[in-house]
């Protein structure tokens, strides 16, 4: 079997989220983003860097929290997601927000960030997608003021069993699944990685969230256009 060519993670991310941009907001992401902003405990006048900002679900609530004396810079690789984010600017009346299309793993190459440091850095959902989360964290801390705060997220392995299996089957078949990754086996793994990036006073918060509601999950998926349709279910016995 021929060796698999290395994947281009930023390009993979751009392709995926460009395709999801039109309906990304029609899901649970609003609730999750609000919770991330609450965890940040933003104060008026603070300067915030929103990494993998997507459609601005964190960016705009953060801009409201820091007020006109603060500002928020949102960075995302997806032009489609950023177009959605920028389209919301008028509705939010946010003059303290700037968006840039760029990879969050190569911030030094973005000239607009030169010399900038932030009170708070938020990366709501993207850490798990990166090829080298540890290196990314070390890079991000260089843009953090002394005493600043970094808020990020990673799914707990217990909530990702099916995705872990999917990813491992892809490896066996030689068809890698680039976005089904669980780099941290325990919350302690995440804590250690953050501390090794040079941060202290690390707090790991376990979150519980339901992505669908109702007594019949299958019907919920069938009737919800935001999700891929499940037309039937099969057991191992059906494969015999």
From TrEMBL:
It comes from the Eukaryota. Residues 44-156 form the Methyltransferase domain. InterPro entries: Methyltranfer_dom, SAM-dependent_MTases_sf. Pfam families: Methyltransf_31. This is Methyltransferase domain-containing protein. It comes from Friedmanniomyces simplex.
């Amino acid at each position: 079997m021929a060796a698999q060519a290395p994947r281009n993670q930023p390009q993979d991310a751009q392709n995926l989220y460009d395709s999801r941009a039109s309906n990304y907001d029609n899901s649970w992401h609003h609730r999750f983003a609000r919770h991330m902003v609450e965890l940040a405990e933003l104060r008026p006048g603070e300067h915030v860097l929103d990494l993998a900002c997507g459609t601005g679900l964190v960016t705009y609530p953060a801009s409201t929290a820091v007020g006109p004396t603060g500002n928020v810079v949102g960075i995302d690789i997806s032009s489609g997601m950023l177009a959605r984010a920028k389209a919301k600017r008028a509705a939010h009346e946010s003059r303290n927000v700037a968006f840039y299309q760029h990879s969050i793993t190569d911030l030094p190459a973005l000239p607009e960030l030169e010399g900038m440091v932030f009170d708070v850095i938020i990366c709501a959902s993207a850490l798990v997608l990166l090829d080298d989360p540890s290196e990314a964290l070390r890079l991000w801390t260089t843009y953090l003021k002394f005493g600043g705060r970094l808020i990020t997220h990673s799914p707990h392995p217990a909530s990702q069993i099916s995705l872990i299996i999917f990813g491992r089957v892809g490896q066996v078949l030689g068809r890698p699944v680039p976005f089904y990754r669980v780099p941290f086996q325990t919350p302690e793994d995440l804590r250690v990685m953050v501390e090794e990036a040079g941060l202290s006073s690390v707090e790991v918060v376990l979150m519980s969230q339901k992505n669908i509601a109702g007594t019949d999950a299958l019907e919920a998926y069938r009737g919800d256009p935001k999700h891929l349709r499940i037309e039937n279910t099969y057991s191992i016995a059906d494969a015999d």
